[in-house]
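Below is a filled-in request sheet from our internal design queue. Each sheet records the structural input a requester submitted and the sequence that came back. We keep these sheets so that new team members can see what a complete request looks like end to end.

REQUESTER: design group, bay 2
PRIORITY: normal
MODE: inverse folding
CHAIN LENGTH: 235
BACKBONE (tokenized):
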């Protein structure tokens, strides 16, 4: 039995890249689409925000002296590319999916309209929110939080490459300890870097829980939305 009825899944751009650090890996995207579609087929309403780091960071070295606003706009466009790739993979499985972009580009995606997004979700369609908030200086974490609040999602499921939130980087420290539960304030005061401070503060102020889990463990998306004890709950 599903614990959540409506969730916002936050994926990094790197999740689309597979073994490589940049670009789009077709097998990886197909695997993600399979897991997300399985959740939707259980009757759970799913919104998705995907980052663009797999595309934009691939050219970051050439962009060192670039204007920040220009760079952020390029990053937003990268999220649209990722969103279209994920939409295509899901629709090949017969799963109705809509990409809604905060930057209007009518030929490739619907413009983001909150009420229309909620209607898509109610009809069982997966909605992928692209192009961040359309504003520079805001991360895709913040965009995910904003969209989750707007569509009245019950939780943000934040996919990472580690099992949850640790007291220090588990990739560098073998003695890192994972939290089962931690408060928003502790995440901020300890600078744990799970999501950016703006998004954590927004979740705190609106009492929106965040579940941080390992995307590399097959089936974890379903486990998270089913309420199984997976990852770290921030509340």
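RETURNED SEQUENCE:
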């Amino acid at each position: 039995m599903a614990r959540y009825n409506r969730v916002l899944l936050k994926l990094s751009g790197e999740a689309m890249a597979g073994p490589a650090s940049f670009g789009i890996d077709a097998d990886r995207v197909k695997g993600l689409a399979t897991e997300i579609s399985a959740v939707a087929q259980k009757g759970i309403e799913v919104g998705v925000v995907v980052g663009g780091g797999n595309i934009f960071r691939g050219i970051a070295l050439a962009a060192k002296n670039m204007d920040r606003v220009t760079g952020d706009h390029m990053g937003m466009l990268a999220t649209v590319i990722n969103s279209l790739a994920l939409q295509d993979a899901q629709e090949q499985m017969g799963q109705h999916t809509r990409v809604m972009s905060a930057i209007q580009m009518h030929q490739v995606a619907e413009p983001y309209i909150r009420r229309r997004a909620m209607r898509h979700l109610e009809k069982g369609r997966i909605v992928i929110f692209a192009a961040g908030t359309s504003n520079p200086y805001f991360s895709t974490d913040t965009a995910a939080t904003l969209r989750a609040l707007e569509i009245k999602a019950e939780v943000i499921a934040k996919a990472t490459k580690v099992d949850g939130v640790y007291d220090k980087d588990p990739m560098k420290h073998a003695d890192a300890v994972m939290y089962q539960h931690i408060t928003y304030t502790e995440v901020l005061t300890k600078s744990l870097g799970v999501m950016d401070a703006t998004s954590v503060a927004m979740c705190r102020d609106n009492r929106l829980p965040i579940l941080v889990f390992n995307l590399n463990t097959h089936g974890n998306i379903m486990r998270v939305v089913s309420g199984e004890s997976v990852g770290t709950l921030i509340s």
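SHEET NOTES:
- Residues 142 and 198 are 7 Å apart (CA to CA).
- The longest strand covers residues 6-11.
FILED BY: M.R.
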